[in-house]
Amino acid sequence: MDGCSSPVLLISSAADTASMNIREALLSVQTWKETNRLWDNPLMVSEDGIYLALLPDEHLYHDNVDKDALEAGLKPKLVVFLSRHRSEAGTRSLTIHPIGNYGNNDFGGRPRRLVPSAPREMANLLRALKESAREMEYAVTYEVTHHGPYLETPTMFVEIGSQEKEWEKQEAGRAIARAISMTNMGGCGDDITLVGVGGGHYAPRFSDIIFKKKACFGHMVPAYALENADEQEAENILRMALDATPEAQGVYIHKKGLKSREKQVVASALEEIGARVLGTGDLEDRGE
Questions:
Q1: What is the per-residue pLDDT across 216-246, written as a single tens digit (0 to 9) for each?
Q2: Architecture of the 192-282 domain
């Protein structure tokens, strides 16, 4: 951690096998000490000044963890949930995503409310995760914004996917622990900050951009969130995503990931908002 750093709170869940796997890996790769108690469990701090808490219940449905942390004397600038990822496709994956709901709150959080995203920190961690897992047969990718819990602090989820046999694999937990340890979680850098629009639940297009370009993404709006939206509904969704993406400088549209009607609705909504639309050619190469 360097001068750009700010208090980071990692939250593991005792109800989540992958989360506990990542927690154990973190405890093994750094030196930690107990600094307080939170949810009747030790609140640990690493030699790098990262905090690690243990939530006794399911994190998707435990709102306001940032307010809970205040009671333990910690005001985090960033919350990172350690979690499992479930998918019927069965793809082995290591994923990162912002949280909130464009529609109903079937999986926690609040309906039609987004949690502030952490664009630079997510990009930094995804890049570190790709490096950490370079010898492993895992897809390393963003997912779009989805599910709870609700809080008011910039937040991301980092996950092991996508079936139970992967959640327990120590190599996956260690890859995430290494990435966290080697990442500047303070968010510094000169990446341009974007909201992503289009594509499916996974976001390989947006992931590829941050690996190659000086860009980072906050909230990402999948095509299915816009599928039946009229212009006003699309405008509301896009405003939500922009407002909850700190220092958003524009919107990147994955055009092949939208149907013709969706492209028209998005274009009209963004014109009404007055948002800047950037393409790949507008983004500077990372040169790495």
A1: 999 999 999 999 999 999 999 999 999 999 9
A2: 3-Layer(aba) Sandwich (3.40)
Question: Predicted confidence band at 1 (pLDDT cuts at 50, 70, 90)?
Answer: very low
Strand partners of residue 285? 213
**Distance (Å, whole) CA 58 – CA 55:** 8
The closest of 216, 177, 190 to 50, measured between CA atoms, is 177
Question: Where do the H-state alpha helices sit in the chain?
Answer: 17-29, 65-71, 119-132, 164-167, 170-182, 204-212, 223-226, 231-243, 260-273
What is the C-alpha to C-alpha distance for residues 152 and 75, in angstroms, rounded to an integer? 11
| CB-based contact 93:128 (threshold 8 Å) | no
Q: Which residues have CB under 8 Å from 144's CB, separation 6+? A: 97, 196, 199, 200, 201, 202, 203, 220, 221, 222
* Whether pTM exceeds 0.70: yes
Token digits of residue 153: 């602090």
Q: Do residues 254 and 206 touch, judged by C-beta distance below 8 A?
A: yes
Tens of pLDDT, residue by residue over 125-148, are: 999 999 999 999 999 999 999 999
Domain(s) labelled CATH 3.40.50.10700 in the chain stretch across: 192-282
Question: Is it the case that residue 3 has pLDDT exceeding 50?
Answer: no
* Length of the chain, in residues: 288
Phi and psi angles of residue 10, each rounded to the nearest 5 degrees, phi first: -90, 135
Degrees (nearest 5) of the Cα angle 120, 130, 94? 90
CA atoms within 13 A on the CB side of 134: 5
Locate CATH 3.40.630.50 in the chain. 8-182
Specify whether domain 8-182 bears CATH 3.40.1400.10: no
